[in-house]
Design brief:
By secondary structure, the chain is of the alpha+beta class. The protein has a six-stranded antiparallel sheet. The protein is rod-shaped, with a radius of gyration of 50 Å. It has a domain of 185 residues. 40% of the residues lie in helices and 17% in strands.
Length: 309
Amino acid sequence: MKSIATILAVGYNQPPPGYYPPPMEPAYAPPPPQQYYPQPYAPAPAYPPRRPMKPIGPYLGPMVLAIVGMVLLIIALSTPWYGITSTTKSDYDGDTSTSTTNVDVSFGGMEAHSKGSTDSITWSEYKDLYGGRSNLPNLYTGIQALIIIAMIMMILALVAVILHWAGYVPGLANRTSIFLVVGLILGIVAIVLFAGAHAPAYKADIKDTSGKGPWDSFIGSDTHKDESEYYSYSTSTSWQPSFGWILVIVFVVIAGIAIGLMRRLPPVQSRAPMGYGAAYPPAGPSYGPPPEPPAYNPPPGYNQPPPPY
């Protein structure tokens, strides 16, 4: 006969009638890791190599001519534009002497040189000398303004030629010629105005216009002689434009040649900063969001009750 302890132990392990244990949960399995699927993507091409500068040969001529034109105008501003030379010869009882006086007229005034000595007057002193009349000083002031503007045009032309050669501004050849044309016109106006108005302006200032002189013509000469039994006296005077006016004529010729060279330059495509192509390559497409992970499906029989014991 089984002991009570054995019966109790065996009966304890038996489920009561109608009792079903709770279903067992399946072992936990982590969801599969999310996978990122990139969209079709082509990497952006590398930046093109630095474009070489165009040959400087066709552009060297206009550059040099623009620089030469600026130098000529700078020298013209600092040198005389008109000159008067007077030579006096005297012979008194066998004693002969000769003296020469050169008067240079520039944008600052008049300067006379004679036998190593120099005497000068400014345009302000000139006005006081001729009773406040200032036709000649005003003429020189106007010519000086024209030359300064022409020099600025040559500087702009030089900058434009360099930009055209570098390719930063497409089709700049014609626009560069505009600066040269303006400088050329200003130079021609300065030459013609100075030649045509110098003598009338001088004549209006000095009033006393007896005989021939720079008040009578732009270029000329005159000789006056006085002789007697004991002495002879002669004065030869010549007047003509000086070095500064001639330099402007040379400048006009150089500007005309530069215009012709610029007209022959081909148009240049624009270049991006630092020498790269005009347009950077487009950026590649960005990664899209990852697709949604598949829905989790429980294994078969997950919700089914276990069979009875």
